[in-house]
Amino acid sequence: MINTNLLKQGIEDLGLVALNDQLNLMDKYAEALVEKNKVMNLTRITEPNKVLTDHFLDSLTTLLAYTPKNGDIFLDIGTGAGFPGVPLAIMNPNNKVVMLDSTAKKINFVKETCKSLSVNNVTFLTGRGEVLAHNMEYREKFDCVCARAVSDMKILSEIALPYVKLGGVFIALKSINIKDEIQRAQNTIKNLGGVISEIKTVCVPISNTQKYLIIIKKISKTKKKYPRDYREIIK
Are 165 and 141 contacting, i.e. CB atoms less than 8 angstroms apart? Predict the structure, then answer.
């Protein structure tokens, strides 16, 4: 489905190393994604080289902002068709990756495909992020929370930061210039117990697309009232 030699080169350009088994797993996942997309709306990106760059390499830029230790747990909020969660799980077999989405059919696809490929370091949550964040099983339990999202940083931070444990990080992957958005979100992030530690500008290999990684460190506990109901958040 995808050119694994090109994928390997792109991963190396990110400063990472992928084994042949990992490259093959990503290739098989891409094939399953494009095939399933014929009968279910999972992604608008189906051309092989675009899948390679815009899904896999784009997702793996997360690892330029966070190098996990053995046993660290990721949470991917709004995983959709499995990004960035699946590439992170394949590249980090010693870490657990939890993937959350409100759309059950998407979660079911990711779950079934991971099972068929024996990607076993994954678990799945179906529901709304702002609701599940009040469940003490998940609240402030994750070392790294990430999201590839178009939501405004104020909204995204309120949903994501309650999941981050003290000392952990929230990484938002953005594809647009976010200077004004960050400025508007500063007070919200502070109220949620976070602080922006870095904003990294990165280039996705092969496509040369510019991305922004907003890295927010959790420095204090999030107040129990957050996150609020989504209608309140977006007001």
Answer: yes
Would you call 62 helix, strand, or coil by DSSP?
helix
Q: Tell me which CATH code domain 67-233 carries.
A: 3.40.50.150
Can you give the residue ranges of every domain in the chain?
67-233
* For the chain, percent of residues with pLDDT exceeding 90: 95
Closest listed residue to residue 101, CA positions, set 69, 66, 170, 148: 148
Burial class (CB in 10 A: 0-12, 13-18, 19+), 20: exposed
Helix axes 4-13 and 20-36, enclosed angle (nearest 10): 120
Q: How many CB atoms lie within 10 A of CB 224?
A: 8
Distance between CA atoms of residues 145 and 42, nearest Å = 22
Cβ atoms of 96 and 121 within 8 Å: the answer is: yes
Structure-token match 């797993």, residue found: 25
Q: What is the pLDDT of residues 67-119, one digit of tens each?
A: 999 999 999 999 999 999 999 999 999 999 999 999 999 999 999 999 999 99
What span, in angstroms and rounded, lies between the C-alpha atoms of 150 and 159? 13
At 233, phi and psi to the nearest 5? -60, -45
Q: Are 165 and 17 in contact (CB under 8 A)?
A: no
How far apart (Å, rounded) are the C-alpha atoms in residues 211 and 218? 22
Whether the bond into 84 is cis, omega within 30 of 0: yes
In single-letter form, the type of residue at position 186 comes to Q
Is the model's pTM score more than 0.90? yes
Of 74, 73, 101, 70, which Cα lies nearest the Cα of 85?
Answer: 74
